[in-house]
Amino acid sequence: MEDQPTRIMLAVNQSTINGYPHASISCRRAFEWTLQKIVRSNTSGFHLLFLHVQVPDEDGFDGSDSISASSDDFKDQNPRYNSRGLQLLEFFVTRCHELGVTCESWLKKGDPTEVICLEAKRVQPDFLVLGSRGLGPFKKVFVGTVSEFCAKHAECPVITIKRREDETPEDPIDD
Amino acid sequence: MEDQPTRIMLAVNQSTINGYPHASISCRRAFEWTLQKIVRSNTSGFHLLFLHVQVPDEDGFDGSDSISASSDDFKDQNPRYNSRGLQLLEFFVTRCHELGVTCESWLKKGDPTEVICLEAKRVQPDFLVLGSRGLGPFKKVFVGTVSEFCAKHAECPVITIKRREDETPEDPIDD
């Protein structure tokens, strides 16, 4: 079992403040946390799986199959390269490539909560890491939390990483 | 930051079927999962913190301070060694010692849900690992789930590891 790397799935999304192709503050935090606290120096022991779920018709893109390893892989995706979702994934894949952590990434369309749970069931990662804005109960009612839904419904273990307070924008609903 | 090991807190409890001093199926599963999927070969990168919360007056023991490193440390706990909780902790500390993973363990008294959250706040681990029996919603109503409460209320990230189906006893409420 030690031969097979631990497969960690990260659901990543785009920022609501800075516009495309920036990753949201909370998913960047979840990613950095995973590297610092779990992967650490054991880069060969882990394999990261990046999923981005696009809301249908967001930019007229139909999803992509798995893309691995390095940012060069994204160059071959022309003319689909225009997709903002692919640019988001490239951010994470490039960072993994620099660090020597193997990874895969792919895009899906649909309701993020449902698609994340479905993909977790299909891909069967060892666990799922989700970023969260860490909103209080009052704010949550209006915003909805993908992480809470997935923590409850995903078939694999889920760990939710809250956005750091010093990274919280003026309006905490922004991310 | 890489110099400091990742501190993982595990709340461990006793079996309801085999009697003392056995660890419950679900907490043993959470422990083995942590070793296999997180610690892996990077034994110096992690520091485990074992907490056992005893229900008050369970065996007339008043709690212990932190005990580290090896099973020999438990020998010095005489005459408190009779405590079943200490024997439970010895199981985990001995296993860590064999593997070369540093650890600490301690006992507290009280309501497990509250004490786990309070201790997580005090000790500030990087994350908390909890075992769960993985009962369906119907069974949960009658049993209550420590893991669900802590996942919601602990101030650190929480990952819940379900008991494996092939380890589930005849009555799934047993553990």
UniProtKB/TrEMBL annotation, chains A, B:
Q: Please give one Gene Ontology molecular function term for this protein.
A: AMP binding
Q: What InterPro entries does the annotation carry?
A: At3g01520-like_plant, Rossmann-like_a/b/a_fold, Universal_stress_UspA, UspA
Taking every annotated instance into account, which residue ranges of this chain make up the domain UspA?
24-162
Q: Which Pfam families does the entry mention?
A: Usp
This chain's protein is named: Universal stress protein A-like protein isoform X2
Organism of derivation: Cucurbita moschata
**Source lineage:** Eukaryota, Viridiplantae, Streptophyta, Embryophyta, Tracheophyta
**Which gene is the coding source of this polypeptide chain?**
LOC111445546
